[in-house]
Write a structure and sequence with these properties.
By secondary structure, the chain is an all-alpha fold. Helix content is 74%, strand content 0%.
């Protein structure tokens, strides 16, 4: 890993952005990947932001960390909404198929 001020972006920041994007895209697959990837992106972004704030990583990665945080939150919300819709649809289907 590069030292602070070396111009290298934080690997955690880039990873949080990538996992966050996967989280947003994953909401199209019944929301399950989003529920897993969203919180991971949020945690990675927070760790990256802490490392940047403490001077252990270059500040140039702060945009990636912010993008990872935002996409992680959006992906988590979309994933939970998707799972919620599926659960409601299943309950409505079971309730509607009664005698």
């Amino acid at each position: 890993m590069g030292a602070a001020g070396s111009g290298s972006d934080s690997g955690l920041a880039v990873a949080s952005m990538v996992v966050g994007i996967v989280s947003v895209v994953g909401c199209m697959f019944y929301g399950l990947p989003s529920i897993v990837c969203g919180p991971v992106a949020i945690v990675l972004a927070q760790k990256a932001k802490t490392a940047i704030r403490d001077g252990r990583r270059s500040p140039s990665g702060s945009g990636f960390a912010q993008a990872g945080l935002i996409t992680g939150i959006v992906g988590s919300v979309l994933g939970l909404l998707g799972v919620g819709v599926i659960v409601v649809a299943i309950i409505a289907s079971v309730a509607g198929s009664g005698p």
